[in-house]
Amino acid sequence: MATTKTTSRATKAAALPPLEVELPRWPALDPWRRRLQAVRSATGRLATLAGACAAASGLFTGTLTGAGLLADVALTLGGLATLRLWKPEGQQRAVATALYLTPGAGLAALLTGEHLMQQLTPGIHPVATTVEAAALMAWTVGVWVARPAEVGRRLLTPPVPAAELVAAGTLVSDHPAAQWWAAKAAVKGGPAPDTVLDAIEATGPRSMRAVIRAATPGEPVPDIAIRRLSALMDIPEDEISIAPVPGRGAGVRLLKVGAPEETDDLATRWAKHVAPKAMPGTVLTEIQVGTPGGQVRTIPVTSTAKQSITGQDA
Questions:
Q1: Strand, helix or coil at 81?
Q2: Closest Cα partner for 140 from 51, 77, 73, 57?
Q3: What phi and psi, each to the nearest 5 degrees, are found at residue 249?
Q4: How far apart are CA 257 and CA 236, in angstroms?
Q5: pLDDT at position 311, please?
Q6: What's the DSSP call for residue 50?
Q7: What confidence tier does 161 reach under pLDDT thresholds 50, 70, 90?
Q8: The predicted structure's pLDDT at residue 165
Q9: What is the pLDDT of residue 68?
Q10: Who contacts 127 (Cβ-Cβ below 8 Å, separation ≥6)?
Q11: β-strand partners of 255
């Protein structure tokens, strides 16, 4: 009788896909990170100058060669340790490591070559010293301009974004019309982008005037299509006007919306109906009210006039 032997094989669990977790940014730490970047940049510049000085002294004497090599190795490996700490494996890390090692390895090769040439040809040799000086110049200029160590660090640790600068004078007032303008008209794609509404003044129940100002100082107010503004505000086009501000530049414009409510008083009636036809150039300044032979009361209208006109009951 044949028996079948069953063997159980441990099934290997399928590999889980890598989990990418984006750490939240801490804006409060950004200024300190920018300061740290500035310190690193300045340290790299100082290290380049110090290495160039050590290599330059190696053209004439080997006294500082040993100390220069030790400092070069210590700074390069110490910086590399902080660069690779907590960084993921991969090609990007390998490239960043190679870039970071380039300045230190180049300086070590330069110092070692100078030391060997000092042993073979003591003193200043016409050919050897010229070659060493050219190599020193190439290393100094290349590291100062290209900055491979900083490029390698930025591959793994992107720099902190620059702080956003707010242009002076772009603050929006608390007036409801200014707030509406900033949210509806001054947005990108709106009829008046990058503008601010200032000096808002009501000239009637359904009319106003204000000053349109460019959000960026020194820039002109962009061309504003009254048709688009009319559609946005739902106000007839003939009740909207945009004109230069007297005595000001192109950075501001005068906006008038609606028909101002005219005052209905005796001085206005005189100026509009009586003076042009009967007495040109006159201004009504006061009115006397009373009865013949009785008490007369004078009511002032305005303090200036080209010709004083007094109305009396006969």
A1: helix
A2: 51
A3: -90, -165
A4: 9
A5: 39
A6: H
A7: low
A8: 43
A9: 84
A10: none
A11: 210, 242
In the chain, the amino acid numbered 249 is: G
The pLDDT value recorded for residue 7 is 45
Please spell the DSSP secondary structure of 248-308, one letter per residue: --TTEEEEEESPPPPP-SHHHHIIIIITTTTSTT----EEEEE-TTS-EEEEE--S--SS-
The answer, yes or no, to whether residue 183 has pLDDT greater than 70, is yes
User: What is the C-alpha to C-alpha distance for residues 116 and 11, in angstroms, rounded to an integer?
Assistant: 62
Determine the residue type at 294.
G
Q: Is 272 left (phi over 0), alpha (psi -120 to 50) or beta?
A: alpha
Residue 230 CB contacts under 8 Å (≥ 6 apart), including other chains: 236, 237, 240
> Distance between CA 252 and CA 241 in Å, rounded?
14
pLDDT of residue 252: 92
State the pTM of this model: 0.43
- Terminal alpha carbon distance of the chain: 149
Q: Is 218 left (phi over 0), alpha (psi -120 to 50) or beta?
A: left
Specify the pLDDT at position 243: 92
Which comes out higher in pLDDT, residue 290 or 249? Answer: 249
DSSP string across 170-238: -PPPS-HHHHHIIIIISSTTSSSTTEEEEEEEEEETTEEEEEEEESSTTPPPPP--HHHHHHHHT--GG
Q: How many CB atoms lie within 10 A of CB 36?
A: 12
pLDDT at position 159 is 65
